[in-house]
Amino acid sequence: MAFIEGSLFCCLIAMYFYYRLGTFPWPPPGVQLPSRLLPACCMTLLLLSCIGSYLASEAARKGDRKGMIWGMGLNLALAIAAMTCRAIDWRLWNFKWTTGVYGSITWAIVWIHTLDVLGDLVYTAVLALLVLLGNVGPRQRIGVHADSVVWYFLVAIWVPLYVTVYWVPYFWGANG
Amino acid sequence: MRYIVTAFLFLLAGGVEALLMRLQLSFPNNPMLGPDKYNQIFTVHGSNMMFLFAVPVMEGMGVWLVPLMLGTRNVAFPRLNAFGYWMYLIGGLLLYVGLFTNTGPDAGWFAYTPLSGPQFSPGKRVDIWAQMITFTEISAMCVATELAVTILKMRAPGMSLNRIPMYCWAMLVQSAMVLFAMPAVMVASNVFLLTDRTIGTHFSNPAEGGDPLLYQHIFWFFGHPEVYIIFIPALGMVSAIVAAHSRRSIFGYPAMVLSLVATAFIGFGLWVHHMFATGLPQIGEAYFTAASMMIGITSGVQIFCWIATLWTGRVRLNTAMHFVLGFIFIFVMGGLTGIMLAAIPIDLQVHDTYFVVAHFHYVLIGGALFPLFGGFHHWFPKFTGRMINERLGKVSFWVLFLGFNLTFFPMHLLRLKGMPRRVYTYSPEMHWTAANGMATAGALIILIGGILFIVNVISSRRSGPIAGANPWDAGSLEWAADSPPAPYNFAFLPGAVSRYPLWSDPADRVVVTGMRNDRREILVTETVSGEPRFRHVLPGSRIWPLLTALLATAGLVGSIFYFQWYYIGAVLTAIGLIGWFWPKEPVEIEP
After folding, report:
1. For every one of its 591 residues, what pLDDT tens digit does chain B have, with 9 covering 90 and above?
2. Cβ distance of B183 and A4 shorter than 8 Å
3. Is A130 on the interface with B (CB under 8 A)?
4. H/E element, B534
């Protein structure tokens, strides 16, 4: 999974810089620079939510049912908070995917990553429900562990994507 | 098995399309197919052969053979395998629904923008192509995942990395390539093409800062490894056949393995040689030419090792070996034109002409189809429990071999006379008639060869002599199972005491005891050493993979018409997956 998604996001980053090289100015006139605060909050919350995954995965190793529920709950809460930050910020954008290639690639990166994150949140929620219902066999414990690994990947891949989408227009933007 | 049968049916369909094209080109100004039908047919032919035949048949053979060769009972993740199969089948049907309703894609099997973009390809034709790609890529990635895990974790005890059969090495390398290459084509077809066409993004619209050339980069970053994804399993098959029928171990095993891995690495570094005619910086041209020529070295290592094996072995010249020798001949021919194409001055001259058509049919049919047919004859006793008719097999080989060369060799000459690719007809003054007529005659001979092959398969399956477990006296573990193997392959898992366990002294051979036979239990082994670690229970068959595939289909097909179907499809697929993973009862695994 990490291979597949990793190659996918690498392609997207390569595309971003390819377009960046060929387009002046970046972002195009009339398009706001990305905001700083909310995306940074989102990134921080995502990083913090990994603690939840770690706790859940440690608890799964020991077979500690309560620990798993707490870990996954923490993970879910922080991740949902992070996604709320992203959603609020997203609504403030003054461009759509049809606004030049800048809009297309920016939307594509954020959209695909959000879809992935939501997918994993559903997965975590279902697992947490299963554990709550008391179905804690070894398979569920492996599932909790795998869920954490997927989550680490999704957060880790967001670091370069975050830098690309929200910082590059500042440092290597405008008339560049 | 259903993978292989389905893929062969698609081969038949692709062959019919090829024949239609050859008939169309058999004489000048032929009114049989119009330009529009011709465009659809060559696009569907290319897409069909690449996405619906070549990759799936190689993976199908892998799914069937790899567990047997590794001495285990099944692939890892059998339900993922089922899901992959259904996605593949639905994707293939989607393409043909398009073709038969006159909405077959018509922009070439790579659908370059801007021709395939919203401006020049209105309608739904290219959208169908793009989603067909999504279906087949999902399926390929499912299979690649399960094969990689199977090969790394489920080998026979004692089968350390340096004892894995060559074919399994090839499948492992191929799976890794699939995992890295296929996402690129999903970016190209889905993010790029489909959103440009359906919701008005500007990835390939130069007026808004987009770039059609980037589509080519992304596509060929997948498209070139794709060729090796098809070709590397074929190399593995050839190694298996050569070793079994030379009755000796393969010459230069470490060199062979390393050259497979090197091929995979270099294969990712030469996609730009499909784009020499687009204008590149000189350093880029130099690098990609060098990389393209380097691939000749790794392929050469393989060929010389096979020749050394054949030279020092006691060769049994049966049908499978005929196909292997035919492969070596044809593939070397294709390799030589490949070296020519890697040189930019020549490439610019022959770009988009019949020289290229001749080249890639020589390497793909020669490099993949002949080994596949060889493998089919070699493993036919294992598939069916009966021997295939050798005499008819050899006749069909010679008919195919002659027909193939008669079809594609004149295409080199057609280029010398200046014939470009993808033209639906030509006028008599061009003097292309004789060579085209010859090529069409060759295509008809290939058809006869194909019919002979099918007749042979059907009649041998019905009334061939009973084969027994190991008719070739071969050394690898698949020949230790019954022919045809039981659904669980092995009741007692064999151990791998050497690289060719069945050629070891019978006194040294071992089997694993203590595995339960009343449930789907397998043995998980250490990645490097092949030491057994623990037993694991595989899940049984259930309806959910099919259901999930159908739900995902609703989303993917719907999104051709309305983008919102992506969201609906995502929710539906999530429901399918939750149902899939919902535990029936907690299954305990003892260590």
Report:
1. 678 888 888 888 888 888 888 888 888 888 888 888 899 999 999 999 999 999 999 999 999 999 999 988 888 888 888 899 999 999 999 999 999 988 888 888 888 888 888 888 888 888 889 889 999 999 999 999 999 999 998 898 889 988 999 999 999 999 999 998 888 888 888 878 888 888 888 888 888 878 888 888 889 989 899 989 999 999 999 999 999 999 999 999 999 999 999 999 998 888 888 888 887 888 888 888 888 888 888 989 999 999 999 999 999 999 999 999 999 999 999 988 988 888 888 888 888 899 999 999 999 998 899 999 999 999 999 999 999 999 999 999 999 999 999 999 999 998 888 888 888 888 888 889 889 999 999 999 999 999 999 999 999 999 889 988 889 989 889 998 888 888 888 888 888 888 888 888 777 777 777 777 777 778 888 888 888 887 777 777 778 888 888 888 888 888 888 878 878 888 888 888 888 877 665 444 443
2. yes
3. yes
4. strand B532-537
Dihedral pair phi/psi, residue B169, rounded to 5°: -60, -45
Say which CATH number the domain at A11 has: 1.20.120.80
Is A176 within a domain? no
Residue at A56 is within a domain: yes
Model's pTM, two decimal places? 0.90
Helix (H, G, I), strand (E, B) or coil at B539: coil
3-state secondary structure at position B11: helix
Partner-chain contact B183 A7, CB within 8 Å: yes
Q: Give the separation between CA A86 and CA A116, rounded to whole angstroms.
A: 14
Alpha helices, DSSP H, located in B313-389: 319-342, 344-350, 354-364, 370-384
In Å, how far is B415's CA from the nearest CA of chain A?
35
Query: How many independent structural domains does chain A possess?
Result: 1
Rounded Cα distance, B302 and B311, in Å: 14
Which of B141, B199, B587 is closest, CB to CB, to A4?
B141
SS3 B190: helix
Supply the range of the domain harboring residue A52: 2-21+38-171
ipTM: 0.83
A140 touches chain B (CB under 8 A): yes
Check CB contact under 8 Å for B211 and A18: yes
Q: Give the pair of three-digit tokens for residue B60.
A: 């199908």
Count Cβ atoms below 10 Å from residue B513 Cβ, excluding itself.
7
Name the region of B537 (left: φ>0; alpha: ψ -120 to 50; beta: rest). beta
The dihedrals phi and psi of B356, each to the nearest 5 degrees, come to -65, -40
Q: Determine, yes or no, domain membership for A114.
A: yes
| 3-state helix/strand/coil string of B386-428 | ECCCHHHHHHHHHHHHHHHHHHHHHHHHHHHCCCECCCCCCCH
Nearby residues of B306 by Cβ (< 8 Å), 6 or more positions away: B238, B239, B242, B251, B324, B328
Cβ contact B184–A7 (<8 Å):
yes
Unique residue bearing structure tokens 């905001």: A35
Query: A57 in a domain, yes or no?
Result: yes
The amino acid occupying position B329 is F
Question: B208 CA to chain A: closest CA distance, Å?
Answer: 5
- Give the gap in angstroms from C-alpha A135 to the nearest C-alpha of chain B: 7
User: Any long-range contacts for B482-487 (C-beta under 8 Å, 24+ apart)?
Assistant: B482/B385, B483/B381, B483/B382, B483/B384, B483/B385, B484/B382, B484/B383, B484/B384, B484/B385, B485/B68, B485/B382
Are B577 and A124 in contact by the 8 Å Cβ rule? The answer is: no
Determine contact: A169 vs chain B, CB below 8 A. no
The residue written with tokens 């799914």 in the block is B63
Backbone angles phi, psi at B492, to 5 degrees: -110, 120
Give the distance from CA B178 to its chain's centroid.
10
